[in-house]
Amino acid sequence: VIANVGDNCTADTVNFAKDVAKLGVDGFMCVVPYYNKPPQEGMYQHFKTIANAVELPIILYNIPGRCVVNMEAETTLRLANDCENIIAVKEASGKMDQIATIAAPAAPEGFSVYSGDDSATYDIMRLGGAGVISTTGNVAPERMKELVTKCAEGKWDEAWAAHEALLPLMNGLFETSNPILV
């Protein structure tokens, strides 16, 4: 169980994460601070402070469409290399060159990139991503699992067919703000 404890206030995030850890969760997801529009160094210091304050694994969440700012590949990789418990990123920037940089050998061993945009899962996994933290998986879990499994197995033609078959649903679920249609 991964608890989303992200907030735009570093101290509030740390306090919330410590409270939630007592519930027995397995890790945390922390979003790029929204509203504040921090520079890259501000993002780095925010996440580093959180990582230093907790022991559980952390998944970073980069979603510029909701946070207004994009966490660049260099910042993500710096955090991955500097903070042992930052183990992954949920990438919803839509910037495939950035995602390719993060998924490349520059990341430490064991660091994972997950798609944060269901319709980009195929492309992100082709770039070396590990999977998806999915919205569509709440509505059609077996179909999303098929797509991810085929990608993980390197069965790219079958994965593309699964992606194409699921694409109308993936797009339809985002005709308005998520999670309304789920």
Could you describe the 3D structure shown?
The protein is an alpha/beta fold and 182 residues long. The protein has helices at 10-21, 40-53, 64-67, 73-82, 96-103, 121-126, 141-152, 156-172, and strands spanning 2-4, 27-31, 58-62, 86-91, 112-115, 131-132. It has a six-stranded parallel sheet. Strand 4 (86-91), helix 5 and strand 5 form a beta-alpha-beta unit. Helix 2 (40-53) runs parallel beside helix 4 (73-82), helix 4 runs parallel beside helix 5 (96-103) and helix 7 (141-152) packs antiparallel against helix 8 (156-172). The chain starts with a strand and ends in a 10-residue tail after the last helix. The model has no long low-confidence stretch (mean pLDDT 96).
What is the typical, i.e. mean, pLDDT? Answer: 96
- Major pleated sheet: 6 strands, parallel
Specify the helix fraction band: 40-55%
Query: Rough shape?
Result: globular
Note poorly predicted spans: none
How are the strands of the largest sheet arranged?
Answer: 1-2-3-4-5-6
Order of helices and strands: EHEHEHHEHEHEHH
The number of helical elements comes to 8
Give the termini separation. 20 Å
From the alpha-carbon coordinates, what is the Rg to the nearest angstrom? 16 Å
The number of strands is 6
Strand content: 5-15%
**Structural class label:** alpha/beta
